Amino acid sequence: MLAHELTYLQGQLESWRRRQDGWGGPIFRGRRAPTEHDLTLMSNDYLCLARYPDVVRAQVKVLVERGNGALMSGVYSADCDPHHALEERLAAFLSAPAVMLCQSGWAANVGLLQAVVRPGDPVYVDELAHASLWAGAAAAQARVRPFAHNDLDHLERAIGASGPGLIAFDTLYSVTGDLCPLVDLVGLAQRTGCDLVADESHTLGVLGFEGAGLVPSLQLTDQVAYRTASLAKAFAGRAGLVACSAEVAGYLPYHSLGAVFSSTLLPQDVAGLAATLDVITRADDRRKRLAHNAQVLRDGLTALGYNVRPSESQIIPLQPGTEPAVRLLQEALDREGVFGAAFIPPAVPARRCVQRLSVHSELTDADLSRVLTACAAVREEADLKSWKSTRRLGTAL
Ligand SMILES: Cc1ncc(COP(=O)(O)O)c(C=O)c1O
After folding, report:
1. 13-47+284-391 fold
2. Around 139, how many Cα atoms within 13 Å sit in the side-chain half-sphere?
3. Contact at 8 Å (CB) between 391 and 306?
4. Are 307 and 385 in contact (CB under 8 A)?
5. Which residues line ligand 1 (CB under 6 A)?
6. Domain 53-281 in this protein, CATH class
7. What angle do CA 51, 54, 60 make, to 5 degrees?
8. pTM of the model
C-alpha cells in the first residue's frame, strides 16, 4: 500500500474515532448564524449570482408555469426540451462535444467514474481531489492509486507500477486554492496512455474566456477526456455536469446509476441555470473584481504573517493544522464578524485542518480591510505563532 493511501485511510479512521468522541460537531453545531452585519466568506457563490434578478425571475416564472415538473428519473424524459437545450448550450460554452446535466457535482463524479471505469482498472486520484472522485472510483471497484498532491513524478511512478488508467483531479483545489499543473498532466497522460478527468467545479465561471474554466483557457479541451463540475459554485444553482464525447454522453444517462435511479433536475433548476449561463458569459467585471479581491486578501494576510500558500485563487486557507486550533481561530473570527468555513476530517487529514476564506466579487475595499483588521486582531488569541504552517514561512511575528 502506498504511503499516501495509508495516510488517507488513517485520516478516515481517525475521523471516525473522533466522531465517536463527539469531535467535529462543536465546530459546526451551536455556532451563531451570521447576520447582515457580518461578512460571510463561506459560500461558493463566487460571482454573487444566487440572487441575481434575471435568474430568480426565470426560476419563478417556470415554477409558476410548471410546478415541480415530472418528478421522475431522467431516463423517461429523453426528449425534454429545456433540459437538453441547456445541455447543448453548455457544450458550446465549454467547447465540448456534449454535456450531460446531473443532479449535483457529487452525482456527476460518482456517476461518471462508476459508468466508465471497469472493476480492477487503475484510477489515479490526487490526494486532495474532491471526495466525490474517490467515491466514484470506489463505486467502480477500481484499483484506486492515490498520488501526492500535484506531484507528477509520484504519479508517473504509480502509473509505471500499475499501468495506464484514469487520472482524476480538481483543476482548482477546494481547500488549498491552488491550480493543478494541467499542461504537465496532459503531457504525462499522453506519454503513458492515460485518460484525464478534470473537476472544474471551482474554475467554472471564474477562469477563462467567458468563464468556461481552466481546460478551455489552455486550449486543452481535446486532450481532457472528461470534465466535470458542480453548478453549486459560481453557477449558484443545484446541479452538476459531465462534459465528454458525444458517444459517452449518449451512454451515461442509461448507465450512470445516479442518472437512472435518482430523479432528474426540477424545471426551475434548469431555467435558473440557463439564465445564469447568460449572465456568466458576460460577467468579466465580476471575474476581474473577484481576482482583485482575492489578490488583496492573500497579500494582506501574508503581510500579517499568515501562510496562505499555495493559494493562487479566491479560495484562501488559514492553516492552524489541528482541529482544536481551527476551533479557536473560528471562534475568534466569528466574534469579529468574519465567517469562514472549517475544514476538518474527513474533508482533510487530521493535521491539516483549515479555516477557509472564500472571496466573492461583491466584497468592497472596506470589507477587505475589515477582514484583514479582524485577522490581525485574532493572531494572538488564535496562537498564530504555534501553527506549523506559519513556522514554515520562517516569519518573525
Ligand atoms: C471540487 C468539487 N467537486 C464536486 C463537488 C460536489 O458538488 P455538489 O455540491 O454539487 O454535489 C464539490 C463540492 O463541494 C467540489 O468542491
Report:
1. Aspartate Aminotransferase, domain 1 (3.90.1150)
2. 21
3. no
4. no
5. 104-106, 109, 130, 132, 170, 174, 199, 201-202, 230, 232, 240
6. alpha beta
7. 80
8. 0.93
